[in-house]
Amino acid sequence: MELNAGTVASLLRVAANESATLAQFLNDLDGWDGSDCDTGTNAAHTLASMASAVERLDPVSSFASGLEAGVDAGIILAQGHIGVIITAVLSAWSKALNGPGQITPIQLRRMLCAPNAVQSDSRLTDVLLRTHLSNAIVTVLDTARTAATDLGDTIESNEYLVSWYSLAAQEGLIGATNERTGRIDAGASVLTILFACFDSVVSGQTSVLESLAHMLSELAENNGDIPSQNVPAPNRAFSVDIVWQATATDADHFFTSIELMGARLSCVGMLDPFGVGMWRLHIDTSAPLSVRPKTGRLIRFQVADARPDEMLGVDELAEEGITHRGVRLLERRPMRRVERARVLVCTRAPGLIEDVARTGAIVLYNPSAEDGAGIMEIATSSSTGVSLFVPCDDESSTLGTMLASRLNAPQSLFDPEPADATSSTDAIIVVAQSNDELSAFYVAHTCAGYFVPQPGGHKVGPTMERLLTQGASQALENQVTYSLDSDDDLAISQVVADIARRNPTQFRLLLSAHDGPDLVGLVRQLVMHADSLLDDIDVIDGGQAGRSLIAGMWA
């Protein structure tokens, strides 16, 4: 068959559906050694977003244009390490093609062999060498590449080549599976599924996916142990997602600095003819601010707490075992991540990022409308279809209102959604009425810990919407915030006295970039004088522009 954009769209849609169906199984595989049981979910979301983007193209457009559209979508919309790795694989395929035109078996082999995780003359152009890959992923890619290379110059057809490549990838997964423990690598499994879906689409045979299910079942037979619930190492305390525009040279230097820090990096990017690229990075680090780019143009800096600890457990409500395509994949109940409310909190105070992330919220540092599509994807990928957007100022409040209204806007007749695209028409963004940093922090502290009611999914969306709406309103009623003029001691004393008259249970001070210990000392003295029952105040070195903020909270 002729390979075109329609082939890419079908590949990604089939892979998205297959990953979504297998998400429980893949998430369970990702439950070892403090990992967070989300590889399957992240892969399904990423592939679905890519598929929707490619489905907007004319199906007879070139295969290369389909790959490029998928990569562009992945850079903005990919989720987790696996999402970035999938995007990097497709990016390597895209770069290996010589533009549009019919693809011969020799060209296709060059494309399939492009994702090289072992060696390369250019560390930058092959971003997989910059990405922290498991040994199993390296084995899968290397085994498939070697098998395709060993075919020689005589290749029967594209269909034969893709099938050979996919089978070799499966052999790589089998070889990489731990014989003693039976542990199967979740990320390597996702790539094997992706390649099998390519084979199925090109050959037109669903039996390929049935054979894959049997292979996974046989691998999982010895995997009877329940994954451990170890807390991640301290250098993986936070996950940072970055969308960044920078030159190839700046990107190379930045990637090297991250490697020297010992942080775990996954990255992908596409360069324009002028050598400027749009880059996507997913980083596990103990200090989010240490990986904030100092050059280029930062479009997204997103931080989340990566420590699942007690949030992982056996899904007691799930059926015993997992079956897919009539094949039993798992005999026990799977591990799963206990779901909490999807809360997106805006901040312009770099020193507040870690504190907000520890509440369980997703932190958006300096969000802007330019990243509207990415923020929308984060919000609408909530398992319940409901998310809470928490502004920190008027600008972010306008952004939240715009996103919420766009989600509920009727679809234009001139820009219809593809028939198989993931629908977000039943998704809801609740916008909190916060308009300062400390109010946003308190809303996060109140709402981000809410557990998703059972049985979960969109069925509990109305309940989740009610909980988040009420929780945000209650939090704002239980806090008052003032800005402080650090040069006016009298005004500061009046502010503290006004808060103290409301009998708060806690004072919180957010220091701006221009204030320091003198203001802390003054406020601490005033608070202790106004309310002798309080032991101290909570001081956060926010580092934000403008004035410092003080807040009083009460239960």
UniProtKB/TrEMBL annotation:
Gene3D superfamilies: 1.25.40.340. Residues 6-200 form the DhaL domain. Transmembrane segments: none annotated. It comes from the Bacteria. One of its GO terms (molecular function) is glycerone kinase activity. InterPro entries: DhaL_dom, DhaL_dom_sf. One of its GO terms (biological process) is glycerol metabolic process. This is DhaL domain-containing protein. It comes from Schaalia turicensis. The lineage of its organism: Bacteria, Bacillati, Actinomycetota, Actinomycetes, Actinomycetales.
